[in-house]
Amino acid sequence: MVEDQGDIFKKSQEFLELVNQQKDFIQEVLKENEKLRQLLAQARSQSHDDGSLVREEIEVLRKRIESLEKEKREFELRQQQVEEENKDFAQRYIEIEEQNNNLANLYVASYQLHSTLDFQEVLNIVVEIVINLIGAEVFSLMLLDEKSNELVVLGHEGYESDFKFPNLRIGDGIIGDVAKTGEPYYINQAGKNYEVDFEHPIACIPLKIKENVIGVINIHRLLVQKDAFTAVDYELFSMLAGHAATAIFSSRLYSQSERKLTTIQSFLDLLTTSQSQG
User: How high is the pLDDT of residue 206?
Assistant: First the structure.
């Protein structure tokens, strides 16, 4: 980031120096033209004395003019090149700024993910991240039910209220295959009129802890203002999948242990009550 900004500043300075050089060059050309006019007038006045001398001076002046014109064209070409380079650097600067902003947002989001062990709250945070950072309008979050070996929707956004979410088995269809292989799937067909087909998402991102897939995020439609996935999105997918998977897995284990502790405590309370009554 710092290096790119330095390059942009350097190119801008180079462009300003080129402009100043061109100004000096133009002044030089004007002065040379004035000298040429004076010499040409002088040559004409002396033409009746020595015609060959006049022709030699005119030839020298002509070559000088050609040289100055060539230098001018070279300056103009260099100026055009620097302008194009400045445009490229400016565009790159914007892209880097956008990427840094997204990574900063993801850092904040990942902090939020790991700041709680409440399972439902973690799911809600994941949904907010997919909306705000990825720009998804219609999507679902599915987690693996280890007992049935099926993917079950536990979080979603943008579907019709009466939509019935199917459970999907590992290895079945696009989503099941992503869950089985751990490899993400993209077709990048982003359009506001793109018809939602639940089993055919435009992107499916596995939620992985090391090599174990615990769920997937299915994106079916992007927001109207977002035309397609960008290079930054793919980086966000990768980072989000790891952070979200860890947070979901941890909060789920915590919830399960809490339920077990509550059950054990209730059982102990019942035993204590029974003994006291006996």
Answer: 94
